[in-house]
Amino acid sequence: MNLLPPASPRLGLGLAALGRPGYINLGHDRDLPHKDVQALQDNAWTVLDAAWAAGVRYYDAARSYGRAEAFLGGWLRGRGHTATVGSKWGYTYVADWRTDARTHEVKSHDLDTLVRQWPETLAALDRAPDLYLIHSATLETGVLENGRVLARLAELAASGVRVGLSTSGPGQAETLRRALDVSVEGRNPLSVVQATWNVLEPSAGAALAQAHAAGWAVVVKETVANGRLTARGTPPPALTRLAQALEVTPDAVALAAALAQPWADVVLSGATTTAQLRSNLRALDLRLEADALADLAMSPAHYWQERSGLGWN
């Protein structure tokens, strides 16, 4: 299913690192020297302006991304732009704008959270999102078996909002395949998935291809592995060598590898600065084979263990 207007690049912008002062991307603290609300809004709008100028028309937020929805909604309204907007429910931001908070977000996939967060999203965006996803659905939370939640999502789908799920963790593929089998009164209200895929963690690829073949839209996140596949991390030597040969930075190659997947409809940049965005956009100039850098894959358990060790900063 096409998520973008004609001639738009398949690169979108995620606001996970733009809407709150603390995040797990490597070096995030250095990207935001001033962390008051106005400074973060100004920075977010600057990056959003640069993304729009580059043709980006897909923007992703969530209730737990601090004030990301409000920043995005205010920007769209203030600039008079029309874009495709995705948001997510299921996590609540609780850090109170602190980077040293003991807990930054709390997960809950029950009906009360959905009922509370949907009008909060409407108010923050000043519009309905085009896509509304269960945030980091897993089999353990039972959300894909919760008849009351699924019935409410089916109501939203019937109203014209495309509902689905985002996935995380080593069980992404299993979770997605279960989601493909969801049925509410004989129909599956879910039709979109946002999943982690990168050259270190490609294990969801076959399930994403299955979803795409079933007519689902596929959005790819965390393509630079929260900074591990950028110059700030220690990218695998093969990726670094390819980036040098192509005269781009490692992040551009990592994003290009995701764009090369035939099932990927939109690939998200998680840029926090215009410099990072410009670097990410170079991916659009590259043409890689779908199996490029396939030898870099880690075991999902190892990848997610490393990710869980990243600190909020």
How large, in whole angstroms, is the Cα Rg? 18 Å
Any idea of the CATH class? Alpha Beta
- Tell me what portion of residues adopts beta-strand conformation: 15-25%
Biggest sheet strand order reads 1-2-3-6-7-8-9-10
Domain NADP-dependent oxidoreductase: 42-295
Protein name: Oxidoreductase
Question: Describe it for me?
Answer:
The protein is α/β, with parallel strands linked by helices. It has a single domain (11-308), classed as TIM Barrel (Alpha-Beta Barrel), CATH 3.20.20.100. The protein is 37% helix and 15% strand. The protein has 11 helices and 10 strands. The strands form 2 sheets. An 8-stranded parallel β-barrel has the order 1-2-3-6-7-8-9-10, surrounded by 6 helices. A two-stranded antiparallel sheet has the order 4-5. β6 (131-137), α5 (147-158) and β7 (162-167) form a beta-alpha-beta unit. α2 (37-53) packs across α3 (68-79) and α8 packs across α9 (250-259). The termini are far apart.
Structure described in brief:
The protein has 313 residues and is of the alpha/beta class. The protein has eleven helices and ten strands.
